[in-house]
Design a protein that fits this description.
- The longest helix has 10 residues.
- The chain folds into two domains: 35 residues, no CATH class; 76 residues, Beta-grasp domain (Ubiquitin-like (UB roll)).
- By secondary structure, the chain is an alpha+beta fold.
- It contains three helices and seven strands.
Length: 134
């Protein structure tokens, strides 16, 4: 049975190669192996050096977009920053970002996550407003 990490890779939109990137660590847990670029030059994806900043794109939907006045914003955060730290940094900017709740529902790369998740360069962080239905 595939682990959740491998299942997420296999189910990722546009992955084109089910299971690509899934491997097993020595202890049997799923691990994501480092991939070369798709055109076959053999280069390894760049990894930020220790202490480097990470670039993330924030996306605001519906009521959050209306509240902050923009649909998206690119931000630079310190390496190892969490979703909670991103939210805190946005709210610390003051108006209009202080209208965001302290603990909003957030999806990173289209998966709803907890606030203690660490962000990586290139992550897309979507703020999901509450919805009502009937």
């Amino acid at each position: 049975m595939a682990s959740a990490a491998c299942a997420a890779v296999q189910d990722a939109p546009g992955s084109g190669d089910p299971g690509r990137g899934c491997a097993r660590a020595a202890d049997g847990r799923a691990a994501v192996r480092e991939l070369t670029d798709p055109v076959g030059s053999g280069s390894v994806p760049h990894r930020p050096r220790a202490g480097a900043a990470v670039q993330v794109r924030t996306i605001f939907f519906a009521a959050y977009r209306d509240a902050v006045g923009t649909g998206s914003l690119d931000l630079e955060l310190p390496e190892g920053a969490t979703v909670a730290q991103l939210v805190g940094r946005l709210r610390a900017r003051g108006a209009p970002f202080d209208r965001l709740p302290a603990s909003p529902a957030v999806a990173v790369n289209r998966a709803v996550v907890r606030s203690d998740m660490r962000l990586a360069s290139g992550d897309e962080v979507a703020f999901l407003p509450p919805v009502a239905g009937g």
